[in-house]
Specification:
The termini are far apart. A hairpin with a 6-residue loop joins β1 (3-7) and β2 (14-18). The protein is 68% helix and 5% strand. The protein is globular, with a radius of gyration of 24 Å. A two-stranded antiparallel ribbon has the order 1-2. It has a single domain (22-261), classed as Growth Hormone, Chain: A (Up-down Bundle). The protein is mostly helical. The longest helix is centred in the C-terminal third of the chain and has 42 residues, at 249-290.
């Protein structure tokens, strides 16, 4: 919510506290039940849409879903049994790249918080946009990498870069929401939506012997919206890759730049103001000494 209202027991008056913008927060913005902020829902939908676009485009580029860690782990287990070591190496490398991207994004967020920047989430979006820009411009230049092991050939490093980017993409909303939602993994969203639907049916029975169950309808709408946005993004991403190839990532990078511009710009203006103020005080002290 944009404004929160608290009542003082002594005077009975209402005091309005202005909450900071969510992407300028220095701590997770949400908790389990606090998902009524329309701005956060919009951000979640946009990030899920972009995740669907990247994932679908990556499938057409590499015949693999770059965010599907569960599938990669299952594939690795199957390849151990069948002793197809090249595919095993590919699956494990994809998982490691996704983990590395998540760790990288989280480290950036935590480091910027320590340095008292307010735009940690936006800056992580900017970094992801830069990597997507590199992918979009140069992803098609190297189709395969010959490892030199009995003619073993791996897909291009662009695949691993895209897995890394998807790890970053999921981390931003995960940390921002305090772990409440994910933007790239719809399995968790579908599970949570099923749980809320079960609560709704359970509560609708209104049986006097059953304990009260609280149905979180805003969460149900959020989860359904995330899944719909991911699906829509997948359609757009598939069309984008068929139309523009690897360059489909460039509009996605642009959207991420726009999303992060507010918080990064806030930090830049704040730092510039601080530098100018310090310079002004220094000049003022020098004048006093000269007099």
């Amino acid at each position: 919510m944009d404004k929160s209202v608290s009542r003082h027991s002594s005077g009975g008056r209402h005091t309005r506290h202005h909450a900071p913008p969510f992407w300028q927060a220095d701590r997770p913005y949400l908790h389990e039940q606090q998902i009524s902020d329309a701005r956060f829902r919009r951000l979640g939908y946009i990030m899920a849409f972009l995740a669907g676009a990247i994932n679908a485009g990556g499938f057409f580029a590499f015949a693999r879903y770059t965010s599907h860690v569960t599938g990669s782990m299952s594939l690795a287990a199957d390849m151990v049994y069948t002793r197809e070591w090249s595919v095993l190496l590919l699956a494990l490398a994809s998982v490691c790249c996704f983990i590395g991207g998540a760790a990288h994004s989280a480290w950036v967020i935590f480091w910027m918080r320590q340095k008292r920047f307010r735009g940690s989430f936006g800056f992580s979006m900017w970094l992801e946009a830069v990597y997507l820009l590199v992918f979009g411009l140069f992803g098609a230049t190297l189709l395969h990498v010959d490892l030199g092991w009995d003619g073993m050939v791996m897909p291009s490093l662009a695949l691993f870069q895209l897995c890394f980017i998807m790890g970053m993409h999921n981390t931003v909303v995960t940390v921002l929401s305090g772990g409440a939602i994910r933007s790239t993994h719809m399995t968790g969203s579908a599970t949570d939506l099923g749980i809320e639907l079960a609560k709704s049916v359970y509560y609708a029975k209104n049986h006097p012997r059953l304990p009260h169950v609280r149905v979180n309808r805003p969460k149900m709408l959020l989860l359904a919206g995330l899944m719909a946005a991911f699906l829509g993004g997948g359609v757009v991403g598939a069309w984008g890759y068929q139309t523009a190839g690897h360059h489909f990532a460039l509009p996605v990078a642009l959207v991420l730049f726009v999303l992060g511009a507010g918080s990064v710009g806030y930090d830049v203006k704040l730092r510039l103001k601080f530098i100018l103020l310090r310079w002004y005080k220094k000049r003022k002290n020098l004048r006093k000494k000269s007099v």
